[in-house]
Structures are given as structure tokens and as C-alpha cells.
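Reply to thread "Modeling small-molecule complexes from scratch"

Following up on the discussion above, here's a worked example others can learn from. I took a protein sequence and the SMILES for zinc ion and predicted the complex. Inputs first:
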Amino acid sequence: MVRALRDHGPSTQADLSRGTGLSAATVSNLVRLLLSEGVVETETTTSSGRRAVLVSLSRRAGDRFAVGIDIGRRHLRVLACTPARQILGERVRPLPVGHLAEDTIACASTMLDELLVEADLDRADIIGCGVGIPGPIDERTGQIAHGVILPEWVGLPLEDHLTTQLGLPVHVENDANLGAIAEIWWGEHGVSDLEERSGGENLVFVKIGSGIGAGLVMGGRLHRGHIGITGELGHVGVTEYGPVCRCGSRGCLETVASVSTMLDLMRPGDAGPEPTIDDLIRLAHAGDPATLRIVEDAGLAIGRVLGGVANLLGPRMIVLGGPVIPLGDLLVDSVKRGLARWSSPVVAGATDIVMSSLDGRAEALGACAQVLHEASDESWTPRRATRVPVAHR
Ligand SMILES: [Zn+2]
């Protein structure tokens, strides 16, 4: 059972019973014994809407851990977790639009120091730090490419800059790529029988925020393409004479389906306060017809582009993430309809589309997973995963 906890991270007693084949009563007795010996810790959680006991390995002094930093256009998240997938601490802070790299990196460094103090962690035990950026990173130069969500960051030698500022080994990665890694390492979508026989997971993670980008895991490996830039879904053209996009093209998916576009559409010509993503989510769930139409049109356009992706790559699972997660089925259903309309029926029938279960943490968790993967040489592809609940702290 200790091995199951090490492999799959914090698990409910029911998951442990399913994963190990032990009876519920035996698992319960073992947990009590391990708890008395200080090997595990327990906390109350909910699983499928019911109260459950979440069991995790106790952390001991000197246990090492990874740090994941997710830099968004409007937020900054710093998170620490162990190789046993236990989240040790987390801090989130809003960022002003147009934030500068120097200020944000200094803020991340302060948040990490605060997290270490709060969770009583030693900086010397950090294995490494993964950093997610909402933009394509050109592997030839290690710099953020042009036409991105953070124009102020273009051309910076980010990895060197971050390594110096944080005083840690740092690996910088596109945020959607990290989301894809997190979904196979932490998510609920264990590898299928077919995939297990044919070499690994086939999953696409689509981050829908101020921009739209995808991380592609093919055959259990992250697909990086020729220069490290892949999954630029937001710049696939969907309307020939549409608005000019920040990339310089016209009618890109981002100009009709990003969160920024949806918010722009919410109050045309109204001088009131600018709507936020929280307003969009609240009005959509309240059944506001105009908001529902905005969400539906965005979903259909995203589904149309994903139809091409599915025809070409044949993923088993497409996971949607980003600040749109609380829209749930309101968005997922229209993406499904778009994909069904614009892909081969047999491909559409074989492709699952779901909302991420990682609660906006996918990018930071993926950053941790990447550090831990590089430190251990383990595959990202999970062993046949039992569900890995993420402890909320
Ligand atoms: Zn574009």
C-alpha cells in the first residue's frame, strides 16, 4: 500500500482498495496501523460528492521536492510537491496586465520564500524549478517567440534570467505543454488498454485563456516539433476576413474564441465596468441567453479546429483547461458539437472531450512533474492510474 501511495500520490481509501485489490476493511486497518507509526497522514475530503478519507505519505525532514511556477497574463502561481505527488504548499497572486518580466520574477521569488516559510520547507531540499509561460518558446534560442500573450517578455533569455534570480536550476516550458504533462501524470485519465499495448498515452491539452494553445502528447511523449513550437491552435484561421490577430494574420481562432474575445463580446457599446471571467461564468450558469450564445460560438469554433487536430493525430482524449474550467459542460458540449461537425465520424466517436479536473493547477503541477521526471528518469505515462485526487490546502 505504501508503494501505491508513492506511485499514485494521495489517494482515498476506496482508491487504495481498488488499486491494490485489498478489501476495504484491510485497507482501513492498514491505514490505522501506518497512521500510528507516523508513516501516513489522513485528512477528510470529498470524492464523487461523498465524504472520504484521503491518505498520503508523511513528509519527513530532508525529503526533497520540486517547485512549479505558472506565469499567466493575469496570475502567478507557485507550488511545491514531492515525488509522491503530495502538494506541500501553494501560493497564487493576481498580476496586472502588461506585467514586466523583472517585476514578475522578483514576485515569484518572494512568493517562493513565503511558501517555504509557511510550509516549513528547506530551500536546500528543492530538486529544481519548472516554469510555465503562456507563449511559444523557440528551442533554437531559448527565447519567447513573437506574437505572444506577453509581448513585454519577447526576446528575453528567460531560463538564464530565472536561474539567476531564483538561485535554482530552472526549466522553462510552454504552459499548454505543461498542462498536457500534468493531465497524464496527475489527471483522472489513466492510459487505455489499446494505448498500453501501443506505447503510451495520446492526449491533447487545450489551454483556453487570453490565448489558445495546445500541448500534444503522442505515444506517451510530448510532441515538440522541429523548433519546439507546436500546438499553436489559437492561430489557425477560421474566418477569412475576420479581425486582424496579434500574430499578424487574420481571422485566427483566438480572435473568435479566446477568453478576451468572449469578454469583449459581452457588453458591446456599454460604458459600464469591464466584464470579468467570473461575470461570464456566473451569467452563463444563470442561463443568460447572450452569454450562452457567446460561449456556444466559442466552443463550436474551438471544436472545429480540434476536428482537424483529431483527424490528423487521433488522440484518445482532449482535455480543456484554463480559466474557462468552471463553465463545465456549457463549453464542453459545444466543443463536442464543433468537433463532430468538422471531423470524420469515426474519429469524433473515438475522441473523448472533457474539462480538466486539476482546478487551474495543471500548468504548475506539470512544471513539478517535468522536474521530477528529469530527476528520476521515470516515464510521464502513468502506470494504470487509480484516480489521483489533488489535496486542497
Ligand atoms: Zn493569430
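What I'd highlight from this example: The chain has three domains: 2-57, 65-180, 189-355. The longest helix spans residues 289-313. Questions welcome below.
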